[in-house]
Amino acid sequence: MGTKKAPRRTAERILESSLALFNRFGEPGVSTNAISVELNISPGNLYYHFPAKDDLINALFVQYEQALQPILQASDGVTNVEDAWFFIHSVLEVNWQYRFIYRNLNELLSRNRQLETGVRQTLEDLTQSLLRLLNTMQKNAALNAPPVGWDSVARSMVLLLVFWLSYEYALDPRNALEEDNAQNAAMRNAAHVLGLLAPYAVADQQAHLQRLIDAYASQAKTETAVA
Amino acid sequence: MGTKKAPRRTAERILESSLALFNRFGEPGVSTNAISVELNISPGNLYYHFPAKDDLINALFVQYEQALQPILQASDGVTNVEDAWFFIHSVLEVNWQYRFIYRNLNELLSRNRQLETGVRQTLEDLTQSLLRLLNTMQKNAALNAPPVGWDSVARSMVLLLVFWLSYEYALDPRNALEEDNAQNAAMRNAAHVLGLLAPYAVADQQAHLQRLIDAYASQAKTETAVA
Question: Nearest residue of A to residue B209 by CA position?
């Protein structure tokens, strides 16, 4: 039994280390050699599990999808601002865990055909999931109908969800993607994405949204004061 | 006189070709050697004008800034939806002309310190320019005040303006950045960015905005039918 399990454990360890290194240094900056050194295994052993770097990337993308899909599928249970906050925050947390994908997205897409198809599908799934969320909130009288339809709002939300990290990176390349920044970044961006719903929220939901945004702002202030 | 002008003309030609190649293939995919081959000049001649690839990139970034700043400075003259459409469209056109910058933004930023400072300043200038635009439109009774302030709206607009190309690239890597797509992409994204203002627009401005968005949609349809 033990010998049967060993290869699977090695593959898992390789994926874990790769993810950490890709997130930390960006995928282009991490060679398969660096990964085997980090794990203290031979390059041949790594090659046995993942013959090419893109196999590693594709396996990590499958993990990302497996973490994201259950969240996306729950979007038609989101009836109010509180649920929406939790939903957005959950998506942002998964995006953060696999942030190397969006950090060098265009470059990865230009050379990896599996990712090209996979990312397009993810963006489409995210859009559809948000459309269900917006329609459910409207049906539950949490949101008023927008003047130009939900499609444009959903697409803007997708764009913010996917590129907020690139935006923060552009503003502060040395710190934006460091592990310490995770919780605060997810909160800040959840507040920002939900800000798109502010003009459509009915009065009590708008008040609730404002409390959530204020709560984030005061927490961020405390953290700055401590740091 | 002629001999004095020659070097300047060469530098200009180098910049023009570099920009076209960077836009077409992405900056990481274009070597300085490829640029000298394209121009039919010696690598030494290229090196004489631009000793390093980053010198080329920095000179192009200066050109980008020179094209963008006059537009940004005119934002406090934007009093209605029609002007806002023109303003957004102008910003998007300049971003399109220098699209290589945003195509591999994170990678360029991680190795080029001048760009690190420059891009942060551009994003800040863009945000301030949009805040002036939003306040001017509100002062001119084209927009109602938003429930959570203009800051969040302006930031979302900046994010869309800067990353719409990356988003389109992720949806369609083979065609999104091709020259043919320029006019249609700028129109589609102007409609999308202005969509963020829809809930705040006063009645007649909202109707005008809807006409602009519809006009774009019908034009896009015709183009699809022709193609």
Answer: A148
The single-letter DSSP state of residue B79 is: -
Q: Which two tokens stand for residue B53?
A: 């690839």
CB pairs A-B closer than 8 Å = 123
Cα–Cα distance measured from residue B72 to residue B190, given in angstroms and rounded to the nearest whole number: 15
Whether residue B199 and residue A146 make contact (CB cut-off 8 A), yes or no, is: yes
Any B CB within 8 A of A127 CB: no
Residues in chain A: 227
In DSSP notation, A172-227 reads -TTTTTSGGGHHHHHHHHHHHHHHTTGGGB-HHHHHHHHHHHHHHHHHHHHHHHH-
3-state secondary structure of A197: coil
B200 neighbors B146 (Cβ within 8 angstroms): yes
Q: What are A130-170's pLDDT values in tens digits?
A: 999 999 999 999 999 998 889 999 999 999 999 988 898 89
Q: A109 — contact with chain B (CB < 8 Å)?
A: yes
- Count Cβ atoms below 10 Å from residue A183 Cβ, excluding itself: 13
CA count, 13 A, side-chain hemisphere, A155: 20
Positions of CATH 1.10.357.10 in chain B: 65-226
Between A79 and A219, where is the model more confident? A79
When CB atoms are compared, the residue of B106, B152, B209 closest to A192 is: B152
> Tell me: domain A1-51, CATH 3.30.540, correct?
no
Q: Does B195 touch chain A (CB under 8 A)?
A: yes
Distance CA A33, CA A39 (A): 10
Q: What is the pLDDT of residue B224?
A: 59
Cross-chain CB nearest to A160 (options B28, B159, B201): B159
| CA distance, residue A109 to nearest chain B CA (Å) | 7
pLDDT tens digits for range A38-87: 999 999 999 999 999 999 999 999 999 999 999 999 999 999 999 999 99
Q: Where in chain A is the domain with CATH 1.10.357.10?
A: 54-226
CA distance A152 to chain B (A): 6
Three-state DSSP at A143 gives strand
- Does CATH place domain B65-226 in 3.30.565.10? no
**Is B149 within 8 Å of chain A by CB?**
no
* Closest alpha carbon to A109 in B6, B65, B169: B169
Contact A148/B109, CB-based, under 8 Å? Answer: no
Domain A54-226: assigned CATH number: 1.10.357.10
ipTM associated with this complex:
0.89
> Helices A150-171 and B150-171, interaxial angle, to 10°?
90
